[in-house]
Amino acid sequence: MSGERLLEPVGPVRLSLAAIGDVGVIGSARARALREGWDAVFAAAAPALRAADLGFANLELPVGEAGQVRPGRSPEFRHDADVLPALVRAGVRVVALANNHMMDCGPRGLERTLSACESAGLACAGAGPGLEAARRPAELVVRSQRVAVLAYAAPSKASARAGTPGPAPLEAALVREDLERWRPRADVLVVSVHWGSMYVDYPPPRVLELAETLERGGADLVLGHHPHVVQGWRRAGRCLTLFSLGDVVFDPRAGDFEARVAAATRRESAVFTVRVADEPGLDVLPLTLDPDGWPQAPDEARGRAQVERLKGLAAGLADARERFAREAAPRLLGYELESLGQYLRQGRWGRVARLLGSVRPRHLPLLWQALRRRGGDA
User: Fold this and answer.
1) Are residues 236 and 354 in the same domain?
2) What is the pLDDT of residue 278?
3) pLDDT tens digits for range 18-66
4) What order of strands is seen across the sheet that includes strand 145-153?
5) Do 215 and 310 reside in the same domain of the chain?
6) Which long-range contacts (CB under 8 A, 24 or more apart) does 135-140 make?
7) pLDDT at 238 over 80
8) Which of 111, 236, 244, 345 could be 215's S-S partner, Cβ–Cβ 3.0 to 4.6 Å?
9) So what's the pLDDT on residue 378?
C-alpha cells in the first residue's frame, strides 16, 4: 500500500523529514547485501526517503571488521562501510550514532564510523571522542531552514565523558542545557533518543518524563528508537514525539539468540514522514521485514493492519503508564527469563551475572506485577 496521512499539519509546512529506525545490516541481511548489492537493502524505503527534504536513520552499529567486536557481544554486531553510501543513495542525509551498540568495536570502531560518515557525505550526531563532541549537533540547511539534530542514548558505562569517547548520555539536566543552547540557533530542532524497553508497545514512565522534558524544552521533533518495535506518537503543540521508529533492517537471528517475544510485531516497520509546521503533520509508509531482516512493501491487507495498529498505539498513550505496567511488565519478564535460560544453557556466566545485576529498585514493583499476572494466567 502507499503511505497514509496520520496527522494533518497546521500552518505552512517548512520542511519534511522522513525517518527510519534501527539500521543493522548483519547476519543474513549482510550476506544477502553482499550478493545482491547494498542499494537493494533499502530499496523499499528509498522512495519515501527521497521524497522528503531530509532523511534520518539510527545507525545501530559501528563500522568495523570481523574480529573487532568486543567480548560479550555477538561477533555480527558491526557494519560494513558500504552501508553508509547506500544510505545516502537511498535518501538519508543524517544519522544518529547515540545508541547502546556504537562502542561495540571500541574507540577504533567509533573513530572509523565517524570517518566513514564523513567520506560518505553523511551528517552524524550523538557520539564523539569526548563528551563535548558527542553533544554537538549535526547542523544542516534544508529549504532555507537551519536544522540542528541532537542525539542521545540511555546512560551506560560506554557513555562519553570528558576525554573519553562514546555516545552522548540521555540525562535530563544535560539535555536541558543543550536545548537552551541550540534552540535559538535553529529553525528546526530535532532530538534523536535511544531509550525505552525492548519489544514492548508502550514507553515506560521514565521515557514519558523525558519526552515531556524535550517537548517543554523546545524540540520540534523527537525521534525515538531502541525497543526494536514501532510505538505510537503524540503531538504536543509544535512538537511531535515518535516514541519508537522500530527496525528498518535487522536480522534478529544474528544476536545471541532469536527471542520469541514479540516475534510478529518486530517484523513491522515503516518510514515516518514528518511535515514540520506550527503543529506538525505525519505520514506513514508501512513496511515489513522479511526473514533476512530486509524491509519489503507489505500486501494491502497487512499494510492496512499495521497502520491501524499504529493508530491504536498512539491512542493508547493517553494511559501509557498503566498500559506499561499491565502489558509490558509480563512481556519483559518473559524476555528476561528466556535470556537467562539461553545464557545458562550456553554457559555464559558473565552474561548471567550482568543480567541479574541489571535489576534496579525501580524494577521491583513491575517485576512483582509481572509475576502476579503470570501466576494468574497459569
Assistant:
1) no
2) 97
3) 999 999 999 999 999 999 999 999 999 999 999 999 999 999 999 999 8
4) 138-142, 145-153, 188-194, 221-225, 239-242, 233-236
5) yes
6) 135/160, 135/168, 135/174, 135/178, 137/178, 137/182, 137/186, 138/94, 139/186, 140/54, 140/93, 140/94
7) yes
8) 236
9) 41
What is the C-alpha to C-alpha distance for residues 18 and 16, in angstroms, rounded to an integer?
7
DSSP state of 137: P
pTM: 0.91
376 has pLDDT over 90: no
Beta-strand relationship, 281-289 and 268-276: antiparallel
pLDDT tops 60 at residue 249: yes
Please state, in angstroms and as integers, the Cα–Cα distance from residue 275 to each residue in 13, 90, 219, 335, 376, following that order.
6, 19, 14, 36, 45
Residues 181, 187: contact at Cβ < 8 Å? no
- Sole residue written with cell 577504533: 108
Query: What is the number of structural domains in the chain?
Result: 2
Averaged pLDDT for residues 189-208: 96
194's enclosing H/E stretch is: strand 188-194
Q: By three-state DSSP, how is residue 93 classified?
A: coil
Nearest to 106 by CA among 31, 39, 166, 38: 166
The range of the structural domain enclosing residue 128 comes to: 4-318
The helix (run of H) or strand (run of E) holding residue 18 is strand 15-24
C-alpha–C-alpha distance, residues 252 and 371, integer Å: 27
Q: Are residues 363 and 223 in the same domain?
A: no
d(CA 126, CA 224): 13
CATH number where 86 lies:
3.60.21.10
pLDDT at residue 367 above 80?
A: no
Please check the confidence at residue 1 and state whether its pLDDT lies above 80.
no
